[in-house]
Amino acid sequence: MTMDDLEIFLSIYRCKNITKAAVHQFISQSALSKRLRQLENELGIDLFIRNRGQSCIPTPAGESLAEIASQILLLYEQAQNLKYREGLFSLSIACINSVQEYLLPPLIHSLQDLYPTLHVTLEDHHTNEIFSLVEDKIVEIGITHAPAPFSDLKSEMLYEESYRVVMRKTNNSPAPNTRIHPSMLSPKDEIYEDFGNTFKNWHETWWKMELVKNRVNVTHTAERYLQKEKSWIILPTSIAHELEERSFISYDLDVPCPKHEVYVVYHNRLNNAFAPIFIDEIKKYFVNMGS
After folding, report:
1. pTM score, two decimals?
2. Which one, of 153, 13, 28, lies nearest residue 94 by Cα?
3. Residue 47 burial (CB count, 10 A)
4. pLDDT tens, position by position, 183-208
5. Which end of the chain is less enclosed by CB atoms within 10 A, N or C?
């Protein structure tokens, strides 16, 4: 039994699905299933009840091992952290794509200039996935659209901002200072990206989801579909301004709209020596960006 075996087991335990766990572990489904069988054979117990569709329900033994495995991996991580005494740093971050793609890289670069021995693992995930990753201590830091719903996690708002309508810039584009009313926008021309329940509920008051032209899960994909003159998308202001550097134009909305909120989320019991430094730096980074 290795640390990798325990991490694979906990990934299956958390995802409750072989296919999803394999994607998270960056290995094939067959390889992950084989590793699970080997672990069960070594322990002489069944850890999961397999159902159709690759879903897995933990057995009582599986529930017990989940607690033990979490403790072992935590102790292993603490032992690994001894290397910080030699000036080496590492940090794992799970982040919503909009921040990961457009806002986070300058901060990471500046921190690695300041701390040359800093090694960072970066993953893109949706907010609800990030909560589980942080709670299970698979990553140390989460950056999300909402505060964590778990009592063992702490959430701090990094910033909030308005949304803007983004279109490809053409000769027929409205004047830059135009305020766009939702009635001017047809859902048949919309590229929709979800930014959390509050945004989704507001969106539903103006446009029916079943009429939306295309739905995407990351802004980078949306860019590929914003080619036609009438195509549009609603994005946070910071991202909208980034796209203005790439032949797009953005507009204020002419109706009240919820704010786009971004949070840093971390466990109440941080065991990573660099995590508090990062939390402090990312808060200052977004304060300075806002100013």
Report:
1. 0.67
2. 153
3. 22
4. 999 999 999 999 988 999 999 999 99
5. C
